[in-house]
Structures are given as C-alpha cells and as structure tokens.
Automatic annotation (TrEMBL):
Start and end residues of each Diphosphomevalonate decarboxylase-like N-terminal domain: 9-181
Coiled-coil intervals: none
Protein name: Diphosphomevalonate decarboxylase
Keyword Translocase: no
Organism, as annotated: Kockovaella imperatae
Entries under Pfam families matching the protein: MDD_C, MVD-like_N
Enzyme Commission designation: 4.1.1.33
Length: 346
C-alpha cells in the first residue's frame, strides 16, 4: 500500500514586513507581520509526499527535480519530524491506523515561478510541504497549529497556510508556542483587492533574507525604531482591511516597505534589495497617487528588486497602462530596437 498526498500553496506578499528573529532556531520574529495570500495560480508551490514501507530508510526531497539533502536538525528536517511526532501520537492512541510515522518519505516540490528571486518561494514551498505532509498523515491540527511548524521551516511560510489577509502574531512565549498565523479576513472579504507583480529581475538575490535580517538586527539602530512603530501599523492596517479603506491600507503598506528598505540600507554592510528600476516604480506610483488626489495603488518590495503593486480592480487598467508605458516588456523593447536603423548599424 502506498500513501500519497499532493497539496499546493500560494505565495504571500507582506504589507507589514517580517524582518528579524529573536530566536533564530525556533524562528520567533522580532515583530508581528501581515500579508495577503495571492489567490491566482501563477505563484504556487506544489508538493507531493509519499510514504512507503518498501522505500530505503531515510527521507528524500526533490526541489524542482533536483535532490536536496535533508540535513539533520535543519529546518526541513524539523518540520518533517514535528509532523511525524504528531502522527505517532495518533497511531499510539488508535492502533488500527497504518504506521505512516515509521515509513520513509519521498517528497517532490515544484515552484511555477523563479526560486529565491524575492518572490517568496520559501513561503509557498514550506507551506506546501507542511500542508501535504499533514494531509498524508491525516492530522487533526488546525491551520494555526500547523503554522507553528511551517514557521520553523521558513518564517513567512506560516502565513501561506491561509488565504486572504493573514497576520503572524509574534507571540510572547520563549518556546514560540504562541507565535502563529491567523486569518484577519478571508479572500472573499475584499475581492476588489488585486496585486500586480512586476518582475524586475528573476536572478537569485545576493543576500538571503535569513542572513540579511540577522545582520539588520545586529547592526541597525533604525531597526530598533521600526520595532516601536510596527504594533500601531498592525492595528491600523487590520482596521483598514476590515473597513475596506484602501487609502489607509495603501499608505501603511508603502510606509512599511520604505521603512524596511531603510533598515536594510542602515545595516552594516548595507543591503540593497531594490535597484534603479524598483525606485522608478516607486516614483511612478507616487506620481499616479498624487495626480489622483489620493492613493489608487500601493507598492511594496520584499528582499529583492521585484515590485508588488496592490490596487483595486477598478484602478488596475490605469496602473497597468502606466507601468507598460514606462516599463515596456523586454520583448517589446527588443522589437522596437530592431526597427531602429541607428541601433542596427551600431
Ligand atoms: C516578509 N520577508 O514578511 C518579509 C519581507 C522578506 C521581506 O519573510 O529566515 O524567507 O526563512 O524565516 O521567511 C523573508 O523571510 O526568512 C520574508 P526565514 P523568510 O515576507
């Protein structure tokens, strides 16, 4: 008998950023964060887990077709072992259950977008791993309880276990037992909210989030100030979401993205995630918002140069038109250069 489960999980993009850990092993953050889980199929990880007593001993994992070593006590290992522990407890209570906890696992995960390019691949990847394994093990735990495990795989992954608008509460406990994600509002609450992803670069980033955030914790004075403002931003954005107040939502989202990148710049040595194109996108959105008299779009940037622009469906055509006008897609640009004789000669 082969036991198998396949689950996919989407990317989430934070409006209030997670940046810094107070416990690097348990992945307990220095501040709460809030994100929107993208509901379309473009940015997802799909993971299949299979348990079979005939497999050779030891678990194995493939990411986008390439085998990755599961390091003992590493993040993936911790997630698998914690879920296995929960399964074992079920099997001890109910002796009729198949002993899945004793079987070696084979896990294959695919991202349908560039891995590690600042598009939150670790969030969807670890969320898909935890979801598929908990499905395989038929675990009764709630998504918030599962988020305690996903968090230990990659902090932002705990938010991808929910759709819609999701908060990750930093929690007070030193063992991380209350540092979990919860849904603030489902995706149906504000269906007009849309995200435009502008891929500025799909190259792997130079400074990983894990390394970057701890460098910030250790060296940035501005980071300590940010920690003072995050709680009020969390309250304000949650009420903006509940009231569908786009203007407030947009102002807070842009402010927190800018504070986060200012903290990166204030790190020693400084971390530059945004590039000139990223900054031009900020200027474009700021100008659009100014011309409109109030925000019609909000930019936010994670640990990479790619922009995510949140807007409402009624404004999306205006935003796309502006972005396409100033940042024509690469192919368009090439076609245009091809018809320019001066360029051809050169
Ligand atoms: C976020 N980021 O809230 C922030 C904004 C990047 C910028 O969560 O070390 O890959 O695995 O816990 O989850 C990226 O951090 O870091 C991240 P680890 P993770 O989405």
């Amino acid at each position: 008998m082969v036991y198998e489960a396949t689950v996919s999980a989407p990317v989430n993009i934070a409006c209030i950023k997670y940046w810094g850990k107070r416990d690097t092993k348990l992945i307990i953050p220095t501040n709460s964060s809030l994100s929107i889980t993208l509901s379309q199929d473009h940015l997802r990880s799909t993971t299949t887990c299979r348990a079979d007593p005939r497999f050779e001993r030891g678990d194995r994992l493939w990411l986008n077709g390439k085998e990755e070593v599961i390091k003992e006590n590493g993040r993936t290992w911790v997630c698998i072992e914690e879920l296995r522990r929960w399964r074992r407890a079920m099997e001890e209570k109910d002796k009729k259950l198949p002993e899945l906890s004793e079987m070696p696992l084979r896990i294959a995960s695919y991202n349908n977008f560039p891995t590690a390019a600042g598009l939150a691949s670790s969030a969807s990847g670890l969320a898909a791993l935890v979801s598929s394994l908990s499905t395989l093990f038929s675990l009764p735990q709630t998504p918030s309880q599962l988020s305690l495990i996903a968090r230990q795989g990659s902090g932002s992954a705990c938010r991808s276990l929910f759709g819609g608008f999701v908060a990750w509460r930093e929690g007070l406990a030193s063992d991380g037992s209350d540092s979990m994600a919860q849904q603030v509002a489902p995706e149906t609450h504000w269906p007009e909210m849309q995200a435009l992803i502008c891929v500025v670069s799909d190259q792997k980033k130079a400074t990983s989030s894990t390394a970057g955030m701890q460098a910030t914790v250790e060296t940035s004075a501005l980071f300590r100030q940010r920690l003072q403002v995050v709680p009020s931003r969390m309250d304000a954005i949650e009420s903006a979401i509940k009231q569908k107040d786009f203007e407030s939502f947009a102002k807070i989202t842009m402010a927190d993205s800018n504070t986060f990148h200012a903290c990166c710049l204030d790190t020693t040595p400084p971390i530059f995630y945004m590039n000139d194109v990223s900054r031009s996108i900020i200027q474009l959105i700021e100008q659009l918002n100014k011309a409109n008299g109030k925000p019609l779009a909000a930019y936010t940037f994670d640990a990479g140069p790619n922009a995510v622009i949140y807007t409402l469906d009624k404004y999306m055509p205006v935003v796309i038109k502006a972005v396409q006008r100033f940042f024509p897609p690469a192919q368009d640009l090439e076609d245009r250069l091809n018809v320019m004789p001066a360029v051809e000669k050169a």
